[in-house]
Amino acid sequence: MQKINPRWTMGLGFLLFAVGDIWMSTISARDTSIAVIVAPLLIVGIGFAFSISSLTGVAVNTVPNHFAGMASGTTSLLRDFGFTLGPAVIGSIALSRAAAEIQSKVASTPALQKALEAFNAAPAHAPAAEKPALEAAVGAVNSGPLGANGVPATVKLPTGQTVPFNPLHDVAFTALDRAYALGYLVCGLSALFAALLVMLALGGTTHNTQLSAESLAEG
Prior knowledge:
mainly alpha, two-stranded antiparallel ribbon, transmembrane helix, MFS transporter, membrane
């Protein structure tokens, strides 16, 4: 029976990665339904299974028998390294993009500037009991996009009246939505490049583990 060339299964895995991530980049964070993300995440999961299993198989089957454990351990190490490095890089790209968008929006909107100045000055005019909470809110809003998005846009007073509070909440939410869409797009395009690289550049077919004098001696 003819064996499947591992570059096709690995390439298919990366291609499914690309499809799922690019699909995710089109979904707005304002859509809170879980149903809209099930299909793209399922596609990414299937792509992961194809690509990682093929990658491990290629690494193990292209070294002499006595190096199989080393090859397997190396692929596991690189996979875990990618799990750490990938989110850090994409998160940095997304948060930098969101911060720049918020800064640009504030700089181009005088009304937003005035609202932000009033918000930042609020702790100085607040009663002593409310001052720590207001200072914490101001600090969070000025800490970056995630902090600005985490403080609510409105608060309810003890009288039951709802009043505006954080002027940057909606701006930060929109900026983060667009920024993480860009992050998913970067992931998708990277996976697409990896798929093309694997299918065009990776040669050979699956075969038995290479034998050597050392591996035969160990047996």
